[in-house]
Amino acid sequence: MKIKEYVSLTKTYRFSAGHRLYIKSLSDEDNFKIFDTCSNPNGHGHDYAIQVQLYGEIDPETGMIYSLQELDNIMSPVIDELDHKRLDIEVPYFENAQPTGENIASYIWNKIKPSLNDKLIHIKLSETSKSYFEYYEEDNYPYEC
Amino acid sequence: MEVVQCANYAILLAFKGVFELMGFKKLLTKKMEFSASHRYWNEDWSEEKNLSVFGKSAGPYGHGHNYNLEVTVEGEVDAETGMIINLVELKSVMAEVLVDFDHKHLNKDNPHFKDLVPTTENIARVLWDLLEEKLQGNPKCSLYRVRLYETQDLYVDYWRK
Questions:
Q1: Which residue in B41, B56, B126, B156 has the most chain A C-beta atoms within 10 A of its own C-beta, making it the best mutation to test that interface?
Q2: pTM reported for the whole predicted model
Q3: For A17-52, what is each residue's pLDDT tens digit?
Q4: N vs C: which end of chain B shows fewer Cβ within 10 Å?
Q5: Closest chain B C-alpha to A144 CA, distance in angstroms
Q6: What values do phi and psi take at A133, rounded to 5?
Q7: Which alpha helices (H) appear in B29-119, and where do they start and end?
Q8: pLDDT digit string (tens) for B28-75?
Q9: How many CB atoms lie within 10 A of CB A135?
Q10: Distance between CA B104 and CA B35 in Å, rounded?
């Protein structure tokens, strides 16, 4: 059996944002029943950390699987759109999608996937130190889960 | 008839036990910190190309990081010691390997990076080779993964199988 080499690189980007989880057609009281304190009418915020995991072969000339400068260039506009914003008011996508960790993670994935292609294998969005959300394609994930 | 059934049942139980043990993966991870400086530079390239590809990391005097190495080994748990590997042994293996890395300028002081850019990926690969060689003396465990943090916001995983 041939031995195969596996290399992944994970870089963390951070942003702070506000949000409110609520269904527009429901009363504040009914929203509280579903979303609890997350439906506070004036919103609340978190320090988010998004970990972007790339996978590939080490380029013999650069010693890297992907240029970190290029990764920063791809991530920078995505982070800028979210950083220090009220997501459900100031970011158009979240006017019609709940700004939950699940939805923010898949939104970021879809934004960066076309640039990173198969190199992108996993993202992990931490909302607080006690909850995080992962998003990846099962068929393109080299780790044993 | 009953005796045969009992015997069959015992065999089944024995198989079940073996399969249950086989179904579990046992991993052990130890962390160790080291500090080193490095410079991203490819001798075959012009200064201009080095600066455009490596940016700030190509500074002429190098710069440094506090690296955190996490070494994961897999194996069976020894019935007597209750361990996959004695942590004292793993600690000394890691410490020996890191002698050439800790408080060193990797490009200048570590022969592995004489002609190899000391990126996090390449350092992880070199560390895997060195650790695997040292752990070969222990038949009960094998290297599973090397995770190397360059900063708290950047890490590389490296493994071979």
A1: B156
A2: 0.89
A3: 999 999 999 999 999 999 999 999 999 999 999 999
A4: N
A5: 10
A6: -130, 135
A7: 47-54, 87-98, 106-109
A8: 999 999 999 999 999 999 999 999 999 999 999 999 999 999 999 999
A9: 17
A10: 8
